[in-house]
Amino acid sequence: MDLLEEYIKSGRIKLNTHKYHETFTVHDPCNYVRKSVMIYNDSPNNGEKCRWIAQQCIDPSLYREMCDDPLNNFCCGAGGGAWAMPYDQERLDYGKVKVDQIRDTGAELVIAPCHNCRDQILKGLGAEHKKKTPGFDMGNYQETLYLWELVANCLEYEPWSQEEIDAAHAARDAQFERDGIELEEE
Questions:
Q1: What is the pLDDT of residue 19?
Q2: Alpha helices of 42-161 — where are they, by DSSP H?
């Protein structure tokens, strides 16, 4: 999220904010949000960064908040390896709180930066919603996108001027130097 935020703020990438017209919300993964605050004392936290990035891609007036604070959002039920384990019914039962949260937002799109969360909401909870399984009414829900997927879908591709190419090369070189990366000469 830090890199996406940096690229957007610096103008290194440009986003088309008119690709999506659906209402959207952000799911806060346990590891990316709550755990990172507890371990790294991140501020602003990744939940806030995720919201900011998503709102650079889709008109912020279409955003629907899922909870009062990213630190208070509920788990989707797929964490701790539950998505990969053979406990489907338990995982789905834990996810019913997330089903209610999504329904209550009225959002059509859910943005999830975590692969387990995305799969649980899209393939687990969302599949039950589409089958009209009792207890899995997610309201207007249509799709779950990774945060990076949303950004990639909204990228604007314009031919760069030589000045922009030179600035991008300078930014790349500074990033490589900062991170101690050495490229082999061809």
A1: 94
A2: 46-57, 88-105, 115-119, 126-130, 147-154
Three-state secondary structure call for residue 127: helix
Q: For residue 4, what is the enclosing H or E element?
A: helix 2-10
Cis, bond preceding 44 (omega within 30 deg of 0)? yes
List, as one string, the DSSP characters of 25-49. Answer: EE---IIIIIIHHHHH--SS-HHHH
Residue where the block lists tokens 């539950």: 82
Does this model's pTM top 0.70? My answer is: yes
- Is 31 within 8 Å of 114 (Cβ atoms)? yes
Q: What is the pLDDT of residues 125-175, one digit of tens each?
A: 999 999 999 999 999 999 999 999 999 999 998 788 999 999 999 999 999
Q: How far apart are CA 130 and CA 68, in angstroms?
A: 28
Alpha carbon 180 to chain centroid, angstroms: 29
Tell me the two tokens of residue 16. Answer: 């088309």
pLDDT of residue 186: 64
Measured at the alpha carbon of residue 110, what is the angle toward residues 109 and 116, in degrees to the nearest 5? Answer: 140
